Amino acid sequence: MALLLAATAAVLPAGASPPIPMTFDAAQARRQATSPVLGASSADLAAAEAQADAAARLYRPTVALDAQWLHYQKTFDLSLLGALDQVESVASQLVPGIIGDLPGVPGEILQLINARLRQTLPEFFAALPDTVRIRGSQTTLRPVVSAVMPIYTGGAITASREAADANVGLVRALREQTQDLEDVQLVQQYFGVVLAQQAVQIAGETRDGFELHLHNAQLMEREGVLSTAQRLQVQVARDTAQRQYDRAQLEYDTASRALARSLDEAAGVTPESPLFVDRTPLPPLEGFITQAEGGHPLVAQAEARRRLAGAGVELARSRYRPQVFAFGTYNLDRDSALPIEPDWAVGLALRYELLSTLDRRSTLSAANARASAADHDRMAARDTVADLVTRTYNLVELARRDFVTLDSSLAAAQENLRVQDLGFREGEAPASALVDARNLLGSARLQRAAAAYEYVLSLASLLAASDRYDTFARYQRSSEPVTTP
């Protein structure tokens, strides 16, 4: 640990804040809060849900207030032929009665007046025009409330609502896939730093071991017990170990900076949760496959696309059917209404498209083809998920077995180094055997850590693929922590 702290301090700029210790659970909560990718997918899901909510109201009436300011002129041509004939007939019948009632007028004069009026009336009415033109102009404000409510749309509204709901399912599945990728990526980064920490520690201890061997070799060379060639072998091995330590430091710096950026932590992050391995085998593969086929985001996406395609088929079919709407209007200012405008009106409207620029038959054929493709995609998604679960399941099992078998290899490497070091100091073992023994021990330690890292990463991938990632924390708590031996 002292070597790791020294390595961490070496890569910190002067005056920089030390890294923040953080468990994996805390890192996961931080990633949920700061990930721009998850933020974007959450916004996409909110937008899809809002669209579905809007589509759910398509059955409601549309009510609008129209207000128009206008200046207009209207001309009416009224025919007077019928009216004049009736007036002339009535006048001819009334004149004798009116003339006969004049008191004090001699009869001969009344008859003369009557004759003259009868002769004049046709000429008078003939002089009147046959038509009268009335022209009026007005400036007015026309406020009208109108409402339209669909009664039957041939299934178009139902298909639109189904498409909106399916789109929500698709976007939600995409977000779940993004969440799974983010979870697995965090496992890769977080425990990758843990592996890099152990690699620095192992490389440092290997280098320190070669420093001790070199010191012993120099003493033995001065005493004439060891040749210069063998001392040089140890020195070359020590220099190689130093380069490996420098490389491990830089790899640790790269991994830790990547983790800090992904968690939006400028000061850096020091992982506190160790690698882990559960030595017991996993439950049967079939259980993982069954759950994956029912809950993996790829399967959910394929199912949502199938629903979208089905809604497209229904929408294409609705173009063959009539549409019925109820409507109504109400004039809020009857005094300013145009002569031809009603005060209010209600009614039903039926619309059937006889001819369209869009070929309805081809549109329906295309929708059916997309639905068929969606069905095939759904079956392919199930196969893909089953293959993914099988592959990651086997990777977990392989990493577990490697880790278990490395116990004996590590013990043998430690014993081999002890024997070779003792033989080297007694002059019975060559320097090359000591160098190989030290390198074998470092390699075995690093392989053990790498096997634990592969187990953790494969386990996270398997749980994400089988819709069981919520059990990752349980595996972490119940498994054996893996530290540097």
Care to describe what's here?
Belongs to the outer membrane factor (OMF) (TC 1.B.17) family. GO terms for molecular function: efflux transmembrane transporter activity; porin activity. Keywords: Cell outer membrane, Coiled coil, Membrane, Signal, Transmembrane, Transmembrane beta strand, Transport. The chain is α+β, with helices and mostly antiparallel strands. The protein has helices at 2-11, 24-34, 36-55, 81-100, 107-127, 156-222, 228-262, 285-295, 297-318, 360-425, 431-465, 472-478; strands at residues 20-22, 62-79, 131-152, 269-271, 275-277, 323-331, 344-351, 480-482. The strands form three sheets. It has a four-stranded antiparallel sheet. The protein has a two-stranded parallel sheet with strand order 1-4. It has a two-stranded antiparallel ribbon with strand order 5-8. The model has no long low-confidence stretch (mean pLDDT 86).
H and E string: HEHHEHHEHHEEHHEEHHHE
Q: CATH superfamily assignment of the largest domain?
A: Outer membrane efflux proteins (OEP)
Unreliable residue stretches: none
The percentage helix is 55-70%
| Beta strand count | 8
Tertiary shape: elongated
Give the CATH architecture of the largest domain.
Up-down Bundle
Class of the largest domain in CATH?
Mainly Alpha
CATH topology annotation of the largest domain:
Outer membrane efflux proteins (OEP)
SS field, number of helical segments: 12
Q: In what range is the share of β-strand residues?
A: 5-15%
Q: How do the strands line up in the largest sheet?
A: 2-3-6-7
> What's the story with the biggest beta sheet?
4 strands, antiparallel
Mean pLDDT: 86
- For the record, the count of structural domains works out to 2
What's the N-to-C terminus distance?
A: 12 Å
**Computed structural class:** alpha+beta
Radius of gyration, taken over Cα atoms and rounded to an integer in Å: 48 Å
